[in-house]
Amino acid sequence: MPKRPPPPEEPPDESWMATFADAITLLMAFFVMLLTFAEYDIPAFDEAAAAIAERVTGEAPASPAQELSMSMQDIVFEMQADQVVSVNKNSRGIIIELASGAFFKPGSAQLRKVAVPVLQKMSDTLSAKKFACFNIEVEGHSDDTPIRTKQFPSNWELSAARASRVVRFFIEDKMAPFRLQAIGFAETKPKVPNRDAEGKPIKQNQMTNRRIELHVERMSLEEQQRCNEETDFKDILNKVNNKGGSPEGQDAPLPQQQ
């Protein structure tokens, strides 16, 4: 009896190649994108990296800016400060808005005592190692009510002084000064109209326009290199101080605020 011919061989399953090809294409696009970032737009890079990771793994990891935003929102909730502090995200990073009336005494750049714990919590978070390479631009804004005092001849001086006071608070709390910048805009950038059509002041709007804005953005690659060097040097100093000074693990006293 003649032998039966062997069954025909089934072609190999190559369905996996479609997924593999997609992954390779995405990786190639990723590296091409790296080369084409002439200005190294860090926020755009973070978003693109998150989008690629989501496509490959099915999960979208939080970007550093998103992590910082969530941390700041947790602080606002914990301190029950949602009526006077807001946290929003934009294309460059996050914006933390502080109501001037809740943080400063009227017509001055002196911080209210109740505002210090909130700023302290923010400073602790912004100084954490994973957020240490974010720049912080502090903007002071006022309403259109004129001020004429010896210390503040106009709203320019007042808004700049309030922004500088927040910056100085952070520096006194050992934040790296090169991360910080203070700017005063007076009444030139209102969020809402200060006055109605008849020229009468709208008190609620004026209160809204009196504010401090913290614009927190990732550093450029060049700035991040300097930041990493500063952070590493600070870590070395802390280790040396812990060995030769206070017992390891003991918290150092907080700096006194003025």
Describe it for me?
The structure is a single chain. This protein has helices at residues 16-36, 42-57, 64-78, 100-103, 116-126, 155-172, 203-209, 221-244; strands at residues 85-89, 93-99, 134-141, 180-184, 211-218. It has 258 residues and is an alpha+beta fold. The termini are far apart. Helix 1 (16-36) runs antiparallel to helix 2. It is built from eight helices and five strands, in the order H-H-H-E-E-H-H-E-H-E-H-E-H. 45% of the residues lie in helices and 13% in strands. The protein has a five-stranded mixed beta sheet. It folds into two domains: 19-57; 64-238, OmpA-like domain (60s Ribosomal Protein L30, Chain: A).
Topology:
Elements: H1 16-36, H2 42-57, H3 64-78, E1 85-89, E2 93-99, H4 100-103, H5 116-126, E3 134-141, H6 155-172, E4 180-184, H7 203-209, E5 211-218, H8 221-244
Parallel strand pairs: 3-4
Antiparallel strand pairs: 1-2, 2-5, 3-5
Helix pairs in contact: 1-2, 3-5
Outline:
The protein is α+β, with helices and mostly antiparallel strands and 258 residues long.
- CA(first)-CA(last) distance: 106 Å
Overall CATH architecture of the largest domain: 2-Layer Sandwich
Number of strands: 5
- Indicate the radius of gyration in whole angstroms: 26 Å
The proportion of strand residues reads 5-15%
Key features?
8 helices, 60s Ribosomal Protein L30, Chain: A, single chain, 2 domains, 258 residues, elongated
